[in-house]
Amino acid sequence: MTSTFHSIETARRSLFTQTAALNTTGHNIANANTEGYTRQRVNMKAASPIEAYGLTNSTVPGQMGTGVEFTSIERIREMFLDDQYRGENSASGNWSIQSDTLDKLEAIVNEPSDTGIRTVLDNFWKSWSDLSKNPEDPTARKIVVQTAESLTDAMNYMSTQLSNLDRDLSTNIDVKGKQVQGYLSSIADLNQSIAKIEGMGDHANDLRDQRDLMTDKLSKIANITVLETDAGYNISLGSQQLVQGPAVTATVDSAFLNTAYASGDLKAGEAYGMIFSSKTYVADYKKQLDDMANTIANGEVQVTIPAGSNLPAGTTVLKDSEIVNADGTKTTLLAGAAVPIPLTGDLKTTVKGLNGLHQLGYAMNGSTGRPFFTPSVAGEAITASNLRLNPEIAADPSLFATSLRTSTDSAGNISVIKGNNTLALLFSNMKDNKTFTTADGSKTGTVGSYLSSMVGQLGIQSQEATRQTKNADYLVEQVDSRRQSVSGVSLDEEMSNMLVFQHAYSAAARFMTTYDEMLDKLINSTGTVGR
């Protein structure tokens, strides 16, 4: 026969199990809004049944049930969805950084606008056009100085802004490296703590949640690979091992991330986006701006110098050129040949940008032209950062060369025709000259077309990055929604479970009370008949 107190034990087990279920439900509800929390579930099973006690095999049919017990409290989580989420999270981190960088580049370029560099260029060309109407007007010359300095200031400022953006990206790469190192240390510590707790037979659910949250945040920065072993998470970046169980196996900093980028191990994430943006977008637009500045100053450009012009003595042609005479005949001048004085026809030749063109003319004091633009440090190649108006011209606007004509008096003295505007007209026509060629020969066109090409390229890249960012964010949201449907806490579901466990607890308590009354009757009332 069974033990007299068998059902008391059954009721006790039921009470304990339902209490654990209620406690777990309360824990889920309390953490419904906790970042990274995974809902937990109490696994229940029927307790092992027993044979009825006796010296021989019992003839009582069946085995006696011993109630319920819970075997574990586990998280409800799918590793497959975690892997998907981390992959999409890395892509999202990359595109969000690229999009943000391109937005900043658009703000720096500031085109099209009324205050951008195109407006400054237009004002520069217009000032030369105005000067050509009255080359001897000192006010017009001062305006050319001001517009030229505005152009150099705009170039300098834009170059500085690009350098600052590049420096910000480099600084943030170092910050991201420190964040990665912090996450790796935390994950390694959690690996050790989880292994210790689970080695004693328990499930370290909350510590696992913390580890997964750290891993998710790490995946935003870099394209990590996660492998779970008995010792915990092993995390790698391409071929680089970062964490093995309780040990951090790499020191992640800016140099490490740049090396990983160069080797191809770093392929996504915010760190990748920063390095890619710095080395591709910022470097490219800085080069294009430098090319434009150098092209304006020294790039090869084809000009037609009208017949009758008197170029400075000793002037030679840069490349093979030709003189188109009034009768239609042509005279070829080979590269390096001296230019005849005066020109008997229109000379179609190539000069080195505005500097080369300016050196063909004469200033108000009769001196020959000098370089129009110079670098801020003598001997350096002209770039957007060091472009400046020749300090001598800036200090004395009369040194602008506007004339290409001279006259000779009866005594043989040569003097400049100050009112001649031929060179000023050539300068003003440079706006529409389509033969400006960059130093590397990669582009030919007007100065305006260089700027339009740069602005158009930036617009397309920014639009594409924005589109990719939206797509990546949508995929992250979609995968996270699927993950939350499995792992997230549903308050409605938890409230339903709470009612189920509450009723089960109440029923078990009622069962124990009932059995207690039975035992009371048995113990206190048996053998009292007839008293």
Describe this structure in a few short sentences:
With about 525 residues, the protein is of the alpha+beta class. The protein has helices spanning about 5-30, 80-110, 115-135, 140-200, 205-220, 255-265, 270-300, 355-360, 390-395, 420-430, 445-485, 490-525, and strands at about 40-45, 70-75, 225-230, 230-235, 240-245, 245-250, 300-305, 320-325, 330-335, 345-350, 375, 385-390, 405-410, 415, 435, 445.
Give a structural overview.
The chain has a four-stranded antiparallel β-sheet with strand order 3-4-5-6, covered by helices on one side. Strands 7-10-8-9 form a four-stranded antiparallel β-sheet. A two-stranded antiparallel ribbon has the order 1-2. Helix 2 (79-109) packs parallel to helix 7, helix 3 packs antiparallel against helix 10 and helix 4 packs antiparallel against helix 7. The model has no long low-confidence stretch (mean pLDDT 90). The chain has helices at residues 6-30, 79-109, 117-133, 138-198, 205-221, 254-263, 270-298, 353-358, 391-395, 422-428, 447-487, 491-525, and strands spanning 40-46, 68-75, 225-229, 232-237, 240-244, 247-248, 300-305, 321-325, 330-333, 345-352, 373-375, 387-389, 406-408, 414-416, 436-437, 444-445. The chain is built from twelve helices and 16 strands. By secondary structure, the chain is of the alpha+beta class. The chain is 53% helix and 14% strand.
